């Protein structure tokens, strides 16, 4: 009838039960919000992934200093895939199964993004990609969003500019990486809409160091009035140098894959006169004061330059937009529950970011239109706005 | 036709780099039967060290000289700490050690330097020279001339000096060389030092054209190896011929057939050589006297 455990032992057991319960409760209610990021910090896409990592670290630090999101600190977990899609997939699985993140901002390149998408669709965790190709969001996948402009938009912006200059017949030299191939396919698809004829095409591997044979073939094709180079990384820098080396005088268009000062540094004087579509972020100080994006881009670029000592890059800007869109979605959803946050991300309207003004919908998981892209020209080693 | 001439210019330039890498392979192979897969890293170190010393404020010529010295130091360290202690092991073991060393050097380079691409200024300006409808960069001529000079120097040393005879003797028969009093281990160390120097010079000469980063060594080592196999592993002339031929094959292949499979050309050549003529174009069939 009377219990065999002595009074003091029962008291001790009760006390430890209380202590355990007390220590669990804070974890359940006040835990950190875990945000994952798989980025290509090193390797051929390092000038995409490195500013992305620095930006995410910077904004997470700022947000945590102000008390976090919904009063909870954000814990950022970054993995470096070095541009390798297989490594990216492995890290994605690790983020989902071991680190148990509730959202992911990352996938610096199209290749790494496409490899990771199935993992996030299966785990039902929202994934905001930082890569360019249009297949990331078309056809629409429930859990996948993206912040950078698509390669289709880049083609359309370039063709628009060509039409203005009266160019109708062009050559194309593209990288065989995921983004280069994807943008090449998109350009071929939309060329007819703008009355552009692609006379000759060539390719190069992303690690090639000499494109003069391919450019020689384009140079010798009669009637080529301009050349587009879809690709990113070191390839376009070498294409641009080779272009001038061979004395090709027709205009050269690059993609937004080279929207970073590093490209101008690497291409050197050969970059003079090259045109590319890019986000307003690159010409922040040259924007007119009444431009809706001016405040956001000036704030971000000065902050980034001050904190990292590096010139601003659009890739960092995409990471910034991704984070802010996610943060505002968590605040609207009042929880970090993946499904509810996903719904709020999809309801993003009128978000003014470094890439443009974002209006998402169930059929549009990017939310940017052609006006988000500006046509830039490189003059005297700097970006200038083409009117 | 001007475009064929253009392909030839491009092919010869990149071929000269492959030739220098292949020469590095050959030197070490001759002295010690080791295929040193860290050879590509010597080229990378030459370029990257020059870039970073220059960024730190050292004038360019001095930076280049220091970079060569640093690379030679790395080559000697590689020999002293990785190859020499394993000198009794089989060739395969030592080759794997060099692969490990190359991965190690690449990792250290990422930390000491950085992960971005870098350029060096052209020596004589970047205005190309027009010849017969094609354009060749002054730097390409520097690369070709530099490669020729190095090859000539190597041949002079081998042919005219006692040291050169000692290297030839070590290459021919290590035991016999030791018996006549040649310090074989010092000769092998010297071959590593020379290979490192050649690789570093190649890197410095070619970086203005091809840019450099911490991982350019891998592909270069593989292509240099393909070139050395094509020319005949062990033949210095073969290394040069193989390198130039590989460069031309890549360039003409990319220009005339398809640019997508340019890298595959080097590997197809390795396969072809191994199937059809394993001793390469200029190598001798190896015969073992039982």
The appropriate CATH architecture of the largest domain in chain A is 3-Layer(aba) Sandwich
Radius of gyration of chain A: 24 Å
The helicity of chain B comes to: over 70%
The best one-word shape of chain A is elongated
CATH topology-level fold name of the largest domain in chain A: Rossmann fold
| Content of β-strand of chain A | 15-25%
How many helix segments of chain B? Answer: 11
Count the beta strands of chain B: 2
Count of the domains of chain B: 1
The profile of the biggest β sheet of chain B is: 2 strands, antiparallel
Strand order of the largest sheet of chain B: 1-2
| CATH architecture annotation of chain B | Orthogonal Bundle
- Percent of residues in β-strands of chain B: under 5%
From N to C, what is the helix and strand string of chain B? HHHHEEHHHHHHH
CATH class of chain B: Mainly Alpha
Shape of chain B: globular
Oligomer: heterodimer
CATH class of the largest domain in chain A: Alpha Beta
CATH topology of chain B: ABC transporter involved in vitamin B12 uptake, BtuC
Question: Largest interface, with Cβ-Cβ < 8 Å?
Answer: A-B, 36 and 36 residues
SSE layout:
The complex is a heterodimer of chains A (387) and B (290).
Chain A: H1 7-30, E1 33-39, H2 46-65, E2 74-80, H3 85-99, E3 103-106, H4 110-123, E4 127-129, E5 144-146, H5 151-165, E6 169-175, H6 178-190, E7 197-204, H7 212-219, E8 226-229, H8 234-245, E9 252-254, H9 261-267, E10 275-279, H10 294-308, H11 314-333, H12 338-346, E11 351-352, E12 357-358, E13 373-379, E14 382-385
Parallel strand pairs in A: 1-2, 1-3, 3-4, 4-5, 6-7, 6-8, 8-9
Antiparallel strand pairs in A: 10-13, 11-12, 13-14
Helix pairs in contact in A: 2-11, 3-4, 5-6, 8-9, 11-12
Chain B: H1 2-32, H2 39-55, H3 60-83, H4 91-112, E1 129-131, E2 134-136, H5 138-160, H6 162-172, H7 174-179, H8 184-210, H9 216-231, H10 236-257, H11 262-276
Antiparallel strand pairs in B: 1-2
């Amino acid at each position: 009838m009377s219990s065999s455990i002595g009074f003091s032992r029962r008291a001790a057991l009760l006390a430890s039960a209380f202590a355990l319960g007390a220590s669990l409760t804070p974890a359940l209610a006040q835990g950190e919000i875990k945000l994952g990021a798989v980025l290509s910090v090193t390797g051929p896409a390092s000038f995409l992934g490195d500013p992305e990592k620095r930006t995410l670290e910077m904004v997470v630090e700022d947000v945590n200093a102000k008390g976090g999101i919904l009063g909870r600190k954000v814990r950022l977990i970054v993995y470096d895939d070095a541009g390798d899609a297989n490594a990216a997939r492995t890290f994605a699985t690790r983020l989902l199964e071991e680190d148990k993140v509730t959202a992911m901002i990352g996938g610096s390149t199209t290749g790494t993004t496409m490899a990771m998408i199935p993992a996030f669709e299966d785990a039902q965790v929202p994934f905001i990609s930082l890569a360019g190709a249009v297949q990331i969001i078309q056809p629409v996948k429930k859990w996948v969003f993206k912040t950078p402009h698509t390669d289709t938009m880049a083609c359309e912006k370039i063709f628009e500019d060509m039409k203005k200059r009266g160019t109708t017949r062009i050559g194309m030299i593209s990288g065989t990486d995921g983004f280069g191939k994807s943008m090449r396919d998109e350009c071929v698809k939309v060329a007819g809409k703008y009355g552009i004829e692609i006379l000759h095409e060539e390719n190069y591997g992303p690690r090639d160091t000499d494109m003069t044979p391919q450019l020689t073939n384009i140079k010798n094709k009669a009637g080529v009035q301009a050349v587009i180079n879809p690709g990113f990384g070191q390839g376009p820098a070498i294409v641009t140098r080779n272009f001038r080396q061979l004395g090709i005088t027709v205009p050269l268009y690059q993609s937004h894959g080279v929207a970073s000062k590093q490209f101008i540094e690497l291409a050197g004087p050969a970059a003079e006169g090259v045109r590319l579509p890019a986000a307003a972020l690159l010409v922040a100080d040259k924007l007119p004061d009444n431009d809706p994006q001016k405040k956001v881009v000036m704030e971000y670029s000065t902050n980034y330059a001050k904190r990292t000592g590096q010139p601003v890059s659009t890739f960092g800007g995409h990471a910034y937009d991704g984070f802010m869109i996610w943060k505002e979605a968590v605040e609207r959803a009042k929880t970090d529950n993946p499904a509810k946050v996903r719904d709020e991300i999809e309801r993003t309207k009128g978000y003014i970011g470094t890439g443009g003004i974002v209006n998402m919908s169930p059929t549009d998981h990017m939310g940017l239109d052609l006006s988000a892209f500006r046509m830039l020209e490189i003059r005297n080693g700097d970006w200038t706005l083409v009117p | 036709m001007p475009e064929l001439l253009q392909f030839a210019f491009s092919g010869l330039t990149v071929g000269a780099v492959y030739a220098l890498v292949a020469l590095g392979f050959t030197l070490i192979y001759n002295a010690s039967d080791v295929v040193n897969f860290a050879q590509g890293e010597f080229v990378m170190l030459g370029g990257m060290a020059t870039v970073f010393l220059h960024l730190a404020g050292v004038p360019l010529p001095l930076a280049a000289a220091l970079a060569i010295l640093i690379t030679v130091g790395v080559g000697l360290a590689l020999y002293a700490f990785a190859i020499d202690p394993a000198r009794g092991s089989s060739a395969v073991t030592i080759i794997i050690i060099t692969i490990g060393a190359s991965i190690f050097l690449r990792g250290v380079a990422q930390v000491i330097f950085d992960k971005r691409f870098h350029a060096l200024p052209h020596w004589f300006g970047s205005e190309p020279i027009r010849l017969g409808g094609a354009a060749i960069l002054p730097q390409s001529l520097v690369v070709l001339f530099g490669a020729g000079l190095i090859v000539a120097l190597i041949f002079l040393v081998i042919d005219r000096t006692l040291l050169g005879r000692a290297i030839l003797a070590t290459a021919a028969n290590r035991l016999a060389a030791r018996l006549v009093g040649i310090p074989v281990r010092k000769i092998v160390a010297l071959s590593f030092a020379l290979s490192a120097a050649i690789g570093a010079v190649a890197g410095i000469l070619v970086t203005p054209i091809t840019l450099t980063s911490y991982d350019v060594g891998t592909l270069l080592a593989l292509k240099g190896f393909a070139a050395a196999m094509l020319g005949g592993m062990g033949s210095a002339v073969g290394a040069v011929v193989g390198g130039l031929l590989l460069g031309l094959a890549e360039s003409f292949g990319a220009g005339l057939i398809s640019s997508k499979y340019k890298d595959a050309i080097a590997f197809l050549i390795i396969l072809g050589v191994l199937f059809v003529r394993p001793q390469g174009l200029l190598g001798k069939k190896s015969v073992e006297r039982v």
